[in-house]
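Run log // design_07
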């Protein structure tokens, strides 16, 4: 039986067949589809609510996982069968963390745990006792700690560099150790709300693509995820321009402002620049300093997402046209600019405006500098008293570096203060810094360090090793540097110690040192003992709190507790008191 179709029906069929054939020939597909959706379960029981998203902008890195909200002690489980291949305990960083390898080629990470499961807790305690050391980085073999999907492995906590109970959770491609957005694997998160947009920024750029002007606009909500600027046409006195957006993802049931999944720049209807948070290599963390407006972040704790690429920014999470997001301006025709921010669930917000070149001369920027440091090549400076070596990847754009030195008379200062450019200019990674000090007595040479002198006279120890008559280290930012001496040991202050500790399991102490640590400085080392026998002392770096754990089998009677805390330059602070147990 022949079935007749109208011309309209035939046209629809042909269009459908054409679309299927085009898709089959390799048309773009959503990269999220390549990841398994039903293999992993969530790492927590109950609702998954986020306080941090993958690729979110942080002060010194892109966030490499998701942060799951909860409470101290919330049960954490393995997301699939596998084996624990790394157990890590640190005073800072991820604190107590576990890494699990799964048969499908992925690994999972569970960080900031309050404690491990009972079996792992016993293992860690025995290891610490045998090695007389709090921190550990242990790699079990593939048969030592097997886990099943849904098995209890630990409890949510606040250890390491964490300022509220949560689980930092990652999924990585095992072979490359490459973090992947965990939401790609079917982790259920409720989100029906579109991202919010706060501000829009336009940069006028010169021939070197250095910013000559910056104009910021507050955004007005126009409903249904649309925003607008209270300006008909934005006029920029430059030949080129770049734009940036301050935008955040908001989700159901939480108050946090998280990072968005995708940001796209359209110019006259064509996509010019895309940021998307799919995968993120650890070697790309510092590119965040070029992605956001670094100076604004340092000064205002504000995060503007650039929608154009700085010359030295090699972040792989961009898709760009040949202009790399740069607008070529002219006085005759305004360009329609649109930015779309999208969360992982497809909720969108957008803002549109028109940008045109202003008539009249381009704004001139005063070029006053002491050294010109091109990006993309190694740069060295040596003036006898100061040596600097910047690797070819150090700068995201050419740097017109300013430098001066100042003679200051201070008791612990043993060099001139070298003011190296502007701290609001970012540096990728670290560079070599060496300073030739004034005469230092031989017995004090081991106490010398390179100090970074910040606002409010805050001193940071950046480490330092002698190379001939110069003190050398590596630092990661511009600023004021000098050679100083540290002969003062840390101060140990008991928080809840008393002479009668019967019934107590632990006591807390604070270590106070007026010098911070950064770069190659080693920080504090520590040891505790009772009657000359080593006992476990845990360290919470963010609060400089030390906790002495009293042995459960400690005999009744009088005992002596001794703490030693040593700083980077070998100065030792001691607390020793007797107590009754």
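design_07 sequence
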């Amino acid at each position: 039986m022949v079935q007749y179709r109208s011309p309209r029906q035939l046209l629809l069929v042909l269009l459908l067949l054409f679309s299927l054939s085009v898709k089959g020939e390799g048309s773009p597909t959503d990269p999220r589809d390549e990841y398994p959706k039903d293999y992993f379960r969530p790492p927590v029981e109950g609702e998954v609510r986020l306080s941090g998203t993958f690729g979110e902008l942080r002060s010194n890195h892109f966030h490499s996982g998701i942060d799951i909200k909860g409470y101290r002690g919330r049960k954490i489980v393995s997301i699939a069968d596998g084996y624990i291949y790394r157990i890590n305990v640190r005073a800072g960083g991820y604190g107590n963390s576990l890494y699990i390898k799964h048969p499908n080629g992925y690994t999972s990470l569970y960080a900031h745990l309050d404690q491990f499961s009972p079996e792992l807790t016993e293992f860690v305690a025995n290891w610490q006792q045998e090695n007389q050391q709090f921190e550990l980085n242990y790699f079990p073999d593939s048969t030592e700690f097997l886990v099943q999907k849904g098995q209890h492995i630990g409890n949510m906590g606040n250890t390491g560099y964490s300022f509220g109970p949560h689980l930092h959770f990652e999924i990585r491609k095992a072979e490359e150790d490459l973090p992947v957005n965990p939401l790609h694997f079917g982790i259920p998160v409720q989100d029906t709300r579109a991202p919010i947009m706060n501000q829009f920024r336009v940069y006028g750029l010169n021939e070197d693509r250095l910013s000559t002007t910056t104009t910021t606009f507050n955004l007005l909500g126009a409903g249904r995820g649309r925003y607008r600027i209270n300006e008909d046409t934005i006029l920029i006195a430059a030949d080129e321009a770049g734009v940036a957006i301050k935008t955040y993802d908001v989700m159901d049931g939480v108050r946090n402002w998280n990072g968005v999944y995708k940001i796209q720049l359209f110019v006259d209807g064509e996509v010019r620049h895309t940021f998307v948070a799919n995968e993120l290599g650890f070697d790309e963390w510092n590119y965040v300093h070029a992605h956001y407006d670094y100076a604004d972040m340092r000064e205002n704790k504000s995060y503007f997402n650039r929608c154009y690429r700085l010359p030295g920014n090699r972040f792989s999470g961009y898709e760009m046209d040949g202009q790399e997001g740069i607008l070529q301006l002219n006085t005759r025709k305004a360009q329609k600019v649109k930015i779309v921010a999208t969360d992982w669930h497809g909720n969108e917000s957008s803002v549109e405006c028109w940008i045109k070149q202003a008539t009249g001369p381009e704004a001139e920027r005063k070029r006053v500098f002491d050294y010109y440091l091109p990006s993309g090549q190694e740069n060295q400076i040596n003036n006898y008293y100061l040596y600097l070596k910047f690797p070819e990847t150090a700068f995201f754009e050419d740097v017109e570096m300013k430098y001066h030195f100042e003679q200051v008379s201070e008791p612990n200062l043993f060099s001139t203060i070298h003011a190296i450019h502007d701290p609001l200019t970012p540096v990728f990674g670290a560079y070599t810094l060496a300073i030739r000090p004034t005469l230092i007595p031989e017995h004090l040479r081991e106490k010398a360090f390179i100090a970074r002198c910040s606002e409010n006279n805050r001193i940071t120890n950046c480490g330092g090793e002698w190379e001939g008559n110069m003190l050398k280290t590596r630092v990661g930012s511009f600023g004021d540097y000098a050679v100083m001496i540290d002969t003062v040991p840390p101060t140990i202050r008991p928080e809840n110690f008393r002479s009668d500790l019967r019934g107590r399991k632990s006591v807390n102490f604070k270590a106070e040192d007026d010098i911070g640590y950064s770069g190659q400085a080693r920080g504090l080392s520590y040891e505790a003992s009772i009657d000359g026998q080593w006992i476990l002392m845990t360290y919470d770096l963010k609060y400089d709190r030390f906790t002495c754990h009293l042995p459960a089998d400690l005999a009744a009677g009088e005992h002596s507790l001794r703490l030693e805390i040593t700083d980077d330059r070998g100065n030792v602070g001691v607390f020793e008191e007797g107590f009754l147990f």
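The chain has four domains: 50-185, 196-357, 371-485, 491-580.
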